Amino acid sequence: MNNRVAADLDALEGANVSDLIELLKEKDEALQAITDVNLQLSCERDLFRREADHYKERCVKFQVEEMRRQRVGGETK
Question: Which superkingdom is the protein from (predicted)?
């Protein structure tokens, strides 16, 4: 057992069971909050990535159309 675990166990010695249960609940709530934030960030990242891919496709399509117009002597604006 490492020193940190031993110190944590020493700190909990003599604690009420209800206090320990409350600490576990707080830990679970904190972990759930972190999980929720991570999920939200993942969803936003995926959305922004899809939007960027869509924009890139539009830019490439526009560039290809411009090159075609220039080849046939059409005007570009």
Answer: Bacteria
- Rounded Cα gap, residues 35 and 41, in angstroms: 10
In this structure, the dihedral spanned by the alpha carbons of residues 18, 24, 25 and 26, taken in order and rounded to 10 degrees, is: 110
Overall average pLDDT of the 40-47 stretch: 98
The chain-wide mean pLDDT, for the chain, equals 89
Q: Which of 34, 11, 35, 37 lies closest to 23 in space, CA to CA?
A: 11
User: What pTM was computed for the model?
Assistant: 0.58
Question: Distance between CA 53 and CA 48 in Å, rounded?
Answer: 9
| DSSP code per residue over 30-55 | HHHHHHHHHHHHHHHHHHHHHHHHHH
